[in-house]
Amino acid sequence: MKRIPPGSISREGAVLEETGATRFSRRGFVQSLALSSLAAGSGLGMASTDVSKAGQIPAADRLGQRFVIEAGWVLTETRGQLELIPNAQVLVRDGVIEDVRNGAFSDVLPRLKLHDQILLPGFISGHTHCCSATPTRGIIEGPRSYARPLELVETLSDEEMDALTALNLAELLRSGCTTHLEMSLSLRQAESYVRLAEPWGVRAYPGAMIPGIERLFAIWFRADDQVLMDAESGTLDEIAKNLAFCEKHMGKGDGRIQPMMSPHACDTHTPATMRALAQAAKKLGTGLHIHLSQGQRETDTVKRLWGQTPTQWLESFGMLSDGPVFGAHMSGLDWDVDPPILNKHGVVYAHCPSGGGAGNGTQPYPEALAAGMAVNIGIDTHSNDYLENLKLAVLYGQARHELLGELDGKRASQRPTIWNAVEGATRIPAKGLRRDDLGVIKAGARADLISVEVSGMLNGTGALPPEPLNNLLYANGRMVQTVMTDGRLQVSGGEFIAEEPQQVLQRGGEVAQKIWRQLEQEDWFSDTPR
Question: Which domain of life, per UniProt (predicted)?
């Protein structure tokens, strides 16, 4: 990975010559930028016009567009390497990147001017539980268990659940996360996710956790393994229902919705349910999304019951070779046994820096890098700020690396860099999904793009920085200015525009308050350390 100096050009294929007028929807393009402060300040290469209400732009005006993005820096891919190009332009046609250059395209094309920003591929989270983040945020850091708040989410009406999903999904988009491997905590939550993700143009690989949240904790935290065996028939029923969910929604949203089977973890399954999961995943062909060796307890339990690590057990059912596999957390891996198996099958480790809540320990990011594993930065639950998690992955990982060097010199470890994290947010998960058209800015890739302000207060210096990825270490999701999926804007000028943001926030907050009131009635709130 290298940085291209100013004045050089990086692109693949021939430069397109711009001749004559081009066909595009000027009205749709201006409408989609209506809330952008750049549009108000003549950031567009055309005059602005009256606009419709945010989130109400007709679909016909959002598609079939051809436009140019100008950015202070663009992170592109050329000949298999990530490269930073200054003062670059990206040409988009019909939701696909047509060309990248640091010269100018035709003046007749509409333009989005982001000269103080860095343009990046849309971030990909290999692990989300979308509906359930906000009801737990700020109340589990005591620490308290997140179990009861998550159970109460399942008691909500469909309308209330949609309000929660909308707020959490908006936060993910607002922070630059355009693609989600979504393990909803129940089938109802998975349906809610698709109801919001499809009209908002989100790229998603959704599925419901199996066993779901209503049955999970009794099976997961069992005192007797007979509980697991007795739950088998119920889990088989959930697998069948989730397969039906996946088949029903496959390909929706112009192909952006690609459901996956999403088992909870190996210690909540039996050989019979694992076989059923393997058959369902093979039938779908979209892969598997699972918590994998998420703690030592899981690894010890699976070894005790079935004589193998969770990774070995998955491989024995053929579940690592039939499509993409994303495994979250991996804190309980057997480092002598598991990494070679995972690497052989191209399994992606979804590292979630804020998994379990803020400050809830670290995960083996430096060890996974040293083992040559494909590592993605994932969200998990309580924080939806992808840029913040990107930063935490580097900072937590560097601290863990230093401590490992002092306390356990035998375990291989690699000091993470911001380049590692950005690649783990873009190219690595795209390759894990077997999608060469995602996670990169180059000709032929989908126009899933985000921009981040790197020149302003708090994370910048008032001038375009010489090494802009480092400025991401001082940033958070509020500094994301532009988000688009397939060329359709969802955030513009730092404003969420897929729906009316204040309504989304208000409705989600009302539902969270309802859950908190129930927790208070149950005397759930305990004193926290001061």
Answer: Bacteria
How many helical (H) and strand (E) elements, i.e. helices and strands, does the chain have? 19, 17
Token couple for 497? 């525009």
Question: How far is 163 from 353, CA to CA, in rounded Å?
Answer: 26
Class of residue 224 by CB neighbours under 10 A (exposed 0-12, middle 13-18, buried 19+): exposed
Kindly give, in sequence order, each residue whose CB lies less than 8 Å from that of residue 476, ignoring residues fewer than 6 positions away.
Answer: 175, 385, 387, 388, 391
3-29, pLDDT tens digit by residue? 444 333 332 322 233 323 333 333 333
Using CA atoms, how far apart are residues 290 and 51, in angstroms rounded to an integer? 43
**For residue 339, cis peptide bond before it (omega within 30 degrees of 0):** no
**Which residues in 409-487 belong to E strands, given as ranges?**
449-453, 480-485
Task: Examine the pLDDT at 59 and tell me if it is beyond 50.
Answer: no
Site of tokens 């419709």: 52
Task: Judge whether 117 and 75 are in contact, CB under 8 Å.
Answer: no
Cβ atoms of 110 and 46 within 8 Å: the answer is yes
Q: How confident is the model at residue 50 (pLDDT cuts 50, 70, 90)?
A: very low
Is there a contact between 441 and 427 (Cβ–Cβ < 8 Å)?
Answer: no
Question: Going by DSSP bridges, is the β-strand pair 96-101/177-184 parallel, antiparallel, or unpaired?
Answer: unpaired
Q: What is the pLDDT of residue 362?
A: 83
For 389-442, what is each residue's pLDDT tens digit? 999 999 999 999 999 988 877 889 999 999 999 999 999 999 999 999 999 999
CA distance 451 to 448: 11
d(CA 126, CA 352): 9
Which are the contacts of 186, defined by CB distance < 8 A and separation ≥ 6?
Answer: 154, 208, 209, 212, 213, 214
d(C-alpha 334, C-alpha 330), whole Å: 9
What percentage of the chain exceeds 90 in pLDDT?
Answer: 78
Please tell me the distance from the alpha carbon of residue 16 to that of residue 98, in angstroms, as a whole number: 9
Q: Give the contacts of 91 (CB within 8 A, at least 6 positions apart).
A: 16, 66, 67, 68, 97, 98, 99, 100, 101, 105, 109
Q: Measure the CA angle with vertex 111, ends 109 and 113; round to 5°.
A: 160
